[in-house]
Structure formats: structure tokens, C-alpha cells
Amino acid sequence: MISLLLGRIGQIIPTLLVLSVLIFGLQQLMPGDPALILAGEERGDPQVLAQIRAELKLDRPIVEQYVHWAGRVLQGDLGFSWRIRQPVAELIADKLPVTLQLGLMAFVIAVCVGVPAGVISAVKRDTPWDWAANGVALGGLSLPNFWLGIMMILFFSVQLGWLPPSGYVSLAEDWRQSLATTIMPAIVLASGIAAVLMRHTRSAMLQTLNQDYVRTARAKGLANRVVLLRHALRNALVPVITLGALELGTLLSGAVLTEQVFSVPGFGKLIVDAVFNRDYPVVQGVVLITALIYVTLNLIADVLYVVANPRLRGA
Amino acid sequence: MSASVALTAAPSPAGLALRAFLRHRAAVVGLVIVVLFIGVAVFAPWIAPYDPLQTSWTAIRKAPSAAHWMGTDENGRDVLSRVIWGARASLLAGVVSVLIAAGVGVPIGMLAALGGKWTDAIIGRITDAMLAIPFLILAIALAAFLGPALENAMIAIGISATPIFVRVARGATLEVKVRDFVEAARAIGATGWRVSWRHVAPNIVPPLLVQATLAIATATLAEAALSFLGLGQQPPAPSWGSMLNSAQRFLTQAPWLSVFPGLSIFLVVLAFNLLGDGLRDALDPREQ
After folding, report:
1. Which value does ipTM take for this structure?
2. Are B248 and A261 an interchain contact pair (Cβ–Cβ within 8 Å)?
């Protein structure tokens, strides 16, 4: 097990190295001189410009700039926000819990909807139930989540007045208000993932239902419910769990738009605000942290897959 | 004689695929919707009842009526005309960004599969690294650094979608390169270039076609998202995403503003997804 983990980590290191080069390279795409943007009103003063260039090593060769940047990142220093003059790492640490709460709620909703829908769809294959579940899943995949958010605000907030249209209250402040402010964004975030989970569960269930052990369980005279839940679903869930872990990464993408629609001050809104304020270190930091989360989830998914599937342990 | 009859009667792989595709009713519906929207985008100047940029201070935020089927917006512009012209931006962005992604990704993917071990390893690590950044976040970051404009959004989406094409092209090439006809071409002395261009490339088209169709759905959605955030098509030029962005400010006064652009995005993305699913079933020999 440990050798498996070490092997996977060994594979990740070159990927992370390339990733760091790509994210560092982003700033080379930026039009104009970063020192000019940073200097603001003092951009006419050559002394100020020279001082900024020296501080950020902008006057050094590109390789040296990268080594300097990567060295700082390794120490947890993601630089300073150009806009609010606060460490980027602090800003991200501030906003991440909000998005994690949203993401976790969305994931629970997606599992509660997607997995049962997939099971029903597989068991009742080629019936109206199956067609309906597939249709809804395809709809969930094609629906722009920011539009779904707007439509939900229109219906539940504007028409019915049941839920607040925007804003965020933390769990620690008031859990009821927190749920009221996050339930709509969580449902919106869950829609796409529920669709993916439904499709995965359906195909995994269809595969396990054809296995010998399921046939044997039926032949033994076990109740249909027991065969489905204890024998088929338990095995079908193995690939679903691992793919589900990967979907958590997709949540971060979805959060960008959802948080914008519902004005939730999370990780996604941070990157959008940073983009409009031309606060490039924040954009870089958010991309880096997102990628790190994604790579870690990938690793967990890999390990979970092996843990849940003893036949792969020797591999 | 009977052998020749059997030979002429055997349907070609393309014929089989077409038959399988036509049996897939949902895919045919997807194709019809796609063709319809392409028609709307191409003939926008003739179909749109009004100039999409024409403001009218006497027709601000009017609900749908006989004169304005989808109502008017906060500047008195006809929403139907803007939705029709918006189809251009959305479809163009979807297709162009996928062309960029495929144009860059397919040769690189083929190179990874046909080149040496080191080439494959280096390309593999770069692809892994790009895939580690969620698609939309990469597109937003690229669009942010390139500057807000429809062209830059297309480039950003195209670059973000490239690693998927590298993966698909590499996988398909690996599968094709060990087939007998490729081995035979090598055996009679065909150059590496000729083998990849004449023998491998035509045979990796089916999986790439499926990927491209599904990628257009994702790219269209991404363009709408970038325009919604203000990083794509810039106002006053119409695009479904930017229309939704401004509609959000008038949810209570003019709810119709947010219904039609969103519905259009949904229909186009759904149609491309249906088409992609149908093509996958039709082009996968195991399905036939």
C-alpha cells in the first residue's frame, strides 16, 4: 500500500513541476509591463519602476524569475495581492471554507440524487423510468449552471419569496440562515455532478447485474432488494466513488459561476474579482491551489480505487 | 457469381454507421436542432426582425408582445433579434475554439504515439499538468491574461480544450499503429510521415469526430460562461452569455430578459451533446 502511494506521488512530481512552469508562464501572456500596473500613479517615475522591477526580480532572466517564484511558492508564499496588498495565501485561506461548505453540500445532494437515479435507471433498463432518468441527466449536463441559478432566484426568491436571492451567512453565525443562503447555490452546483454520477452508476450497475455472483445470489433465492443493494450496488459503487472524488474538482469550476450569480464571497468569486481588478498574483494563486486540490483528489481517487478493489492491490 | 453478389450487397462501414446514426432518434433530433441554429446564425441579417444594436427609449423593458416576440431589453433593443445575432457569437466561438484545440492537439497526440518514449513522456506530463487545472478556471485565467474579447475567449477555450484532443488522438493512434495495414505500409518502405498522414490519420477520424462534437457543446457553454463574466463578447455586441449578465440586474422588472438567452444556450448545448452521443454509438463498431 505504501509503495503504491509512493509510486503515485513519484508520478505526480513531474506533473507538478510542469504545472508550476505553466502557471508561472501565465504572467508572460500579460500585455504590458507588470511594473507599470503596480506603480499606479507613480508610473512616470523611473526610480519607482526600477525599485519594483528589482523587488519582483522582473529585471532578471526569465529562468531566474521562475526559480525565485517557485522557491517562494514552496514556502507557502503566493505573493501579495496587487489590489488589496494582502498575502494571496491569506486571501485564499479566507475564502476557501465558504466554497468547501458549498461544495460539500452540493456533493451530498448530487450523491443522494444521482446514485439512486442510476440504480433505478439500470434496474428498469429500457423502460420510461430509464428514459426519463437519462433525459434528466443529459439536461443536467447541458444546462448552463449560471442560468439555472438565475431561474431559481426568479422562482424561489422573486416569485415565491422563500429564499434570499444572494449573500452568505456562515454556519458559525447562524446555521439556519447559512442553509437558507447556500441551499440554492448548492443545488445549482449539484445539478451537473448528479447527472455524471447517475450515468456512471447506471453503467456500473448494468455491468455488475450481469456478473455471475449476482446470478448466484438470485439463484439462492435471495430477495431482489438484497441482491440489488448488498451484491450489485456495493460492487458498482467502487468506480462511482473514485469518479465522484474527481468530480469534486469540477465543483471548483462550477463554483466560479455559481458564486458570481448568488454573490457568495468564496473562492470562485475571488478569482473573478481578481480578473477584473487585474490582480494577477491572486489569479495565479487561485489557479495553483485549484490544481493542487485537483491533483490531490486524483491521488485519493487512485488510492481509494485500489483500497476498494483488493484484486488491484498486488498491481 | 454468388460471391460477387455478396460482396456488392455488403454495406460499407460508413453506410453501417449512417444507418446506426439514423436509428438513434435523439441524435437525429440533435442534428436537426444544430442545423436549425446554424441556419439562424448564417441568415441572421435576413431573419432578425430588428437591428440588434438599435436602441429605443420608447420601448424600454417591454414584455413579449406581437411587435417584440421576446420583449425588449433595458435599452429598448429587440431581444429576439439579439438572440438571433447572439447565435453567431456562440456557434462561432464553439466551432473556432474546437478547431484550435483539434488543430493543435491532434498532431501533438499523434506525435506522442508515433514518436519515441521520451517524446511521449514529455507530452504526457504537459497534458497531465494542463488537465490538472479545471477547464473553466484555466479558460478564465487565460482569458484574463489575454484581455476580454471574443477572439481571446476563443483562444483561451481552444487552449484549455487542447489536452483532451492530445489524449484522444494519442489513444486512437496507439490503437491504429499496430494494425496490419500500417505494419504493411511500413514493410513496403513508406516513410514515417507518409504512414502517419496517409494511413494513421484517416483512421483516427471517428473518435476525433465524436470528441469534437461533444467539445463544441462544452466550448459553447464555456463561451457563454466567459461572456457572462464579462470576459467574452463585449457589449453592445450581442451574445447569449453577456445578455444573461445584464438581464440579472432586472430580474424583478423584466424576467423575460433572462429566459430566452439561457434557453438558447441550453438547446444548442443539448443538441451537440445528443449529436455527440449518437455519433459515438454509430461510429463504435461494438455498438453495431
Report:
1. 0.84
2. yes
